[in-house]
Amino acid sequence: MPDPTSPIALPPSSDEALAAAMKEAAARVEQALDTLLPRPEGPEGRLFEAMRYATLGGGKRLRAFLVMQTAALFKVNATCSARVAAAVEMIHAYSLVHDDLPAMDDDDLRRGKPSTHRAFDEATAILAGDALQTRAFEVLAEADTHSDPNARLELILALAHAAGGRGMVGGQMIDIDAEGKTLTEPEIIRLQALKTGRLIQFSAEAGAILGRAAPAQRTALAWYGRDLGAAFQIADDLLDALGTTEETGKTAGKDEAAGKATLVALLGPERARHQAEMLARQAISHLESFGTEAELLRALARFVVARRH
Amino acid sequence: MPDPTSPIALPPSSDEALAAAMKEAAARVEQALDTLLPRPEGPEGRLFEAMRYATLGGGKRLRAFLVMQTAALFKVNATCSARVAAAVEMIHAYSLVHDDLPAMDDDDLRRGKPSTHRAFDEATAILAGDALQTRAFEVLAEADTHSDPNARLELILALAHAAGGRGMVGGQMIDIDAEGKTLTEPEIIRLQALKTGRLIQFSAEAGAILGRAAPAQRTALAWYGRDLGAAFQIADDLLDALGTTEETGKTAGKDEAAGKATLVALLGPERARHQAEMLARQAISHLESFGTEAELLRALARFVVARRH
């Protein structure tokens, strides 16, 4: 019989449960990345060091959490979903490495430490980004990722679409061209949907692909990911505009300094925050058919707009 | 009845047949690339322009020819093999775009015209290279490439292995680190096997993957590709050392100026040419089981070491 004097064990609030689940997903993807990335050896060891430096030990692992949490809705083996989560984090890391280069955003700081081209050199950073992208597709193609070859091909096609010229890289191109220009609200929304939204959307969809879910379920998760990604980007821009370098681990205020097109700059912080909250509620609305199983995904949508770092 | 006074129609020598077949393969892959690369539109149109600039209308298309010619040994549909040839040429083009960047080899000229970062700008060149790599894997994953999902996955795995950190990109890392250092002969051979050899080897193997060939046939073509690639690299370095910018469409003498590690520099042109010829004969020896069907692949091995541009 339990001791009646001990405090009542309340179920953790969804915020605490979310924090615990994000921590666990981060640990699992870290482990997967450590296994899947090559270990430094031979005269090309510097390349592998830079790949590991850029990818390991950093970030909230939002994308990895989405992959693992949406996969859990369909009872997918966590070893498989961690591999897909690792592939997404490799793509994300490669995009940050190239984005930070002097010819691009020219940023010295990333996740509170020197960006890859500062810690190594530009040539090594370019090559490490290139090899991270290759490794991401290789991991998805490997048999350990899913027993069904068609599932692996669907993952590759969806990730390529999200990350390529019609997705993330296209968004980066617009972003760079837009510096110093004034974009309209629809133009900024499209830019951000491509630049960060598509990969977040893929991460939420990946669980449905791994789980061989019905098309309606895959669509619902894709829509959740799309709205979550849009909310996340506004929240990120708010942090850049209002936060400090210490809080965010990135150079603060750099968007404004670079004349970047953001909704925060266009609408002001108050209206931008309002829009982010609306998008988070909209994201949650797509999860109805998943019942209580999707509670952590709902908590994530609330967290994304409430976070302060 | 033919006019007895007209000259006898000799069968074209293998050199002429090779030139015609290479021209045809180049035209086919050009057509496939034009279809598979995105057309410039929207605010990200500059990215698609740069992707097309870097990929279309250039080069001997050695890799494309290898894919199409080895696929022909197994009667593979030319529409399928042209897609794989296009994917390989996208990877090759992306590697040249990034290799030419100021932080890498800093080259202003490529295939007789300004390199991509000179024709556009550095940021656009970095992004175009990135998106070309993504598109290559996407093309291989698409159902039109092969009716068997396992064949598509094998192509993706083999290309990723050839192009990634344990292949081409690893070779580029060693190449950059080696500038100004003196490498031994085995070190140079490994560098070149990674940097250019692996992708040429993949191109020769790709036909066997597409044709669902027996393992021994795939191995024979891989070995052919490996030796051909090594011979090709020495011949390329000889052209750089002895040719002119006008003949080669590239900045001549740049290897020596950059202190690049090549067998030509280590052994001298005569011994290097001897080694290339030996490798070409060795490449041909792997083709024995393919009989007369492989005559053009044999002619290619001879051409690679005899070419003057």
Overview of this structure, please?
The structure is a homodimer of 309-residue chains. With 309 residues, chain A is mainly alpha-helical. Chain A has one domain (14-306): Farnesyl Diphosphate Synthase, CATH 1.10.600. Chain A contains 15 helices and two strands. Chain A has helices at residues 14-36, 45-55, 62-72, 78-99, 116-119, 122-141, 149-163, 168-177, 185-210, 215-242, 245-248, 254-257, 263-267, 269-285, 295-306; strands at 109-110, 113-114. In chain A, strands 1-2 form a two-stranded antiparallel sheet. In chain A, a hairpin with a 2-residue loop joins β1 (109-110) and β2 (113-114). In chain A, α4 (78-99) packs antiparallel against α6 and α10 (215-242) packs antiparallel against α14 (269-285). The longest helix of chain A is centred in the C-terminal third of the chain and has 28 residues, at 215-242. Chain A is globular, with a radius of gyration of 19 Å. The model of chain A has no long low-confidence stretch (mean pLDDT 92). At the A-B interface, α2, α6, α7, α8 and α9 of A face α2, α6, α7, α8 and α9 of B.
